[in-house]
Amino acid sequence: MKKILALALALCLVFALAAAASADWAPNGPVSIIVSYKAGSGTDNTARILAKYAEKYVGQTLVIENIEGGSGSIGWSNLAAADPDGQTIGFINLPNFSSSIVNEMGTYTVDSFAAICNHVTETSIVVVRADDDRFTDLQSLVDYAKEEDFRVKASTNGPQASNHIGAQAFANSAEFFYIDIPQGGTADQLLSLRGAEADFAVVKLADIAGQESEYSILAVFNDERLPELPDVPTLKELGYYDSWLGSSRCLVAPAGVSEEVVAFYEAAFKAAMEDPEYLEAAEQAGMATDFKDAEATAALIAQQQEFAESLAEGFWYEDY
Question: Which stretch of DSSP H or E encloses residue 183?
């Protein structure tokens, strides 16, 4: 089995290097990958795993640059302003990125970036502290929240960011009100929950990788149960939010990069995401790898922008 794995890895590397050698463009030095959240966040963790295995296909050192703040908008502003020479790329998080445009948190738009590929797509989950014996299931959380409006507290990853959208969608469908405790990102959001500043949170599975014992997962936002969480019900089957909800993490470059730059990175990251060693590491980390090419990723970004704009009326409390 090890010999087969080694052979597959060797062939993958040979094909990738051959493609790179024949490419019209390749980076000429270390490549910066901007992550708009702090080190240790879900995005940072998944980005570092991908970067580790993608370096051999890119042919250069990949440097993760954490530029946090403004629910991601500061990092995305820096990425949009970077030289479109292919030496700086970065991640955008959907729908956080889309919401930041709706709320005019930065000067960028969808057109400020060129899509490269999608990395992961993750389903949202509702979590509470594992040692919080008030909530044994989702219904006990709903019952507690309904005892008195704005009694229950939810930590979120920023105003109208992905996990805030999840908390609001859950509350709307279950017909309760809550107090939002916004944080600068998912890492701080979970820290707030663990510190008992909040009662529940909506996050993604990869966000709690390595910390699963600290949380109880009460429900998932999906049409059917997740294979990796067969004993966790969906909100739909419990009579609440009845559709998939989650987020995607996409690699993009500043607008203005050449088609050759996009094609180079698209091929390199595709090879990395098919690398057996990467796939093993991703599985161990609970990462839902979901490669989409540049065209499909651009369509996803456009679709998520429409979704975020559709939430502007009648979704948030301030619109009631």
Answer: none
Residues 91 and 144 in one domain: no
* β-bridge partners, 214: none
- Reported as a single tens digit per residue, the pLDDT across 218-240 is 999 998 999 889 999 999 999 99
Q: Is the dihedral of CA 271, 276, 277, 280 positive or negative?
A: positive
Strand partners, 292: 118
Amino acid at 314: G
- Measured between alpha carbons, how far is 287 from 203 in angstroms, rounded to an integer? 13
**Rounded CA separation 90/33 (Å):** 5
Does any domain span residue 223?
yes
Which pTM was predicted? 0.81
Bridge partner list, 124:
204
In 3D space, the residue among 47, 64, 66, 57 whose CA is nearest the CA of residue 27 turns out to be 57
Residues of the domain holding 179: 123-245
Contact between 272 and 101 under an 8 Å Cβ cutoff? The reply is no
Domain assignment present for 319: no
CA–CA separation, 222 and 168 (whole Å) = 16
